[in-house]
Specification:
alpha+beta, 10 strands, 16 helices, 421 residues, three-stranded antiparallel β-sheet, Cytochrome p450, five-stranded mixed β-sheet
Length: 421
């Protein structure tokens, strides 16, 4: 190993204190990627750009198994999750998620359910002196996705389940109380969903062709690995949560959408009109402009090279995501919020727009729930634009030092009236 590599300071503390600003600042200081550093005690190399994304999402170069830090697995993804697999085992498990989350009718049904839940909730907000949009959006989406997944929640259950799903996301990238809340939330929800998995299995009778149609809960409960064996109960619960948790996380994007409408109210009328093309363009710009994923990591699958740099096997490879979404080489005037840049849809190249991963959904590590995130956000953003509300004085700053971040006060609104049916 080059002596310079052993002497590089570990950047973990900088990540924890600087958050989203760490990588852009590092790349500016070093004159661009690639940059050698250390993270969590491991030798690491930082990559940036479209070609880097193409390199990163190629399994010949980068592997995921054992690459994710333990605290992230403990809170965000869960042990045994599809995110921790590579090769054929990953493709077989990923096919389950693709079948559940890429079906147009299923995506439309979930968006419609979320719209119904929003309409019901909005009527109650009009009677409240204040509504924290982030919390209420998470509860609306949690009720919708739980019902859609075949595990509907009672009115008394939904707030606690939503809070747990939010906690898993909110505590994955930080030590201290947020992290421990995330671990406790995961333990509660894995136990709850595990009981539902067992109930499905005791009741299940496959069709004559061996298929198990129905809900996401049922599909995961009865899924078989490439070896023909079902998932153990714990892993099945983990994978059901990997449908529920990222869907609930759309609450972050919806809160950012509210922030965008407050800062740039000229977009409200176009959203109110309900045109699907503008709603989708607005949705993509929210996902590009606002900070959610700072970067993603993997391990070098073998001794590889990137732009003349030797990358030894098992080196931690860090792909810049937040900086990628604000790179002027890819996005002219990247710090201007402009839905028009998506007037014709997202770029055809699968490595230019990567808020939820790059490459092919079916064979790679791009998120299979991206269509659901877009459909939910587009559906609810239109309803948000039609809602009559005031924004009282509050802290609307979005601290980049916090991962994941959101408006500091959760975006509080006072609803004057909800639209009639």
């Amino acid at each position: 190993m080059d002596l310079r590599e052993t002497l590089r300071p570990d950047a973990t503390l900088s990540v924890l204190t600087q958050g989203y600003a760490w990588l852009p600042d590092l790349l500016r200081r070093e004159g661009g990627a690639p940059v050698h550093t250390r993270l969590l005690g491991h030798r690491a190399i930082v990559l940036h750009g479209r070609d880097a994304a193409r390199f990163f999402y190629d399994e010949r170069h980068v592997k995921r198994r054992t690459a994710l830090p333990g605290p992230v697995v403990d809170t965000l993804f869960g042990h045994g999750a599809v995110h921790t697999l590579d090769g054929e085992s990953h493709r077989v498990r990923k096919a389950l998620f693709v079948s559940l989350l890429k079906d147009e009718r299923a995506v439309s049904a979930l968006a419609e359910q979320a719209g119904t839940e929003w309409d019901l909730a909005a009527r109650s907000w009009a009677a409240m002196p204040r509504t924290e949009l982030f919390t209420e959006a998470a509860r609306v989406i949690t009720r919708a996705v739980s019902s859609w997944a075949g595990m509907p929640l009672g009115d008394d259950e939904a707030p606690a389940v939503a809070d747990d799903l939010v906690a898993m996301v909110d505590g994955f990238a930080t030590p201290g109380p947020r992290h421990w809340r995330a671990r406790q939330a995961r333990a509660r929800q894995e136990a709850r969903v595990g009981e539902l998995i067992e109930a499905v299995r005791q009741d299940a009778v496959p069709d004559e062709d061996g298929a198990h149609p129905g809900s996401a809960l049922r599909a995961v409960a009865l899924h078989r690995n490439g070896d023909g064996k079902p998932l153990d109960t714990h892993t099945a619960a983990v994978e059901v949560l990997n449908v529920l948790r990222p869907t609930a996380a759309v609450a972050w994007f919806l809160t950012f959408a509210a922030h965008a409408l407050h800062r740039w109210p000229q977009h409200r009328d176009a959203l109110r009109a309900g045109g699907p093309a503008f709603a989708e363009a607005f949705t993509h710009e929210v996902r590009r402009f606002y900070p959610f994923t700072p970067f993603v990591t993997g391990l070098a699958a073998s001794d590889v090279r990137w732009e003349g740099e030797e990358i030894p096997e098992d080196t931690l490879i860090v792909l810049d995501v937040y900086g990628h979404q604000h790179d002027p080489a890819l996005w002219p005037d990247p710090y201007i919020f402009d839905p028009a840049r998506f007037a014709d849809g997202p770029p055809a190249d699968a490595y230019t727009f990567i808020p939820q991963g790059g490459g092919d959904v079916a064979t790679g590590h791009r998120c299979p729930g991206e269509d659901i995130a877009v459909a939910l956000l587009a559906t609810l953003a239109v309803r948000l634009a039609r809602l009559e509300y005031d924004v009282p004085p509050q802290d609307l700053s979005i601290p980049l030092s916090r991962i994941p971040t959101r408006p500091a006060d959760g975006f509080v609104i006072t609803v004057r009236s909800a639209p009639e049916d």
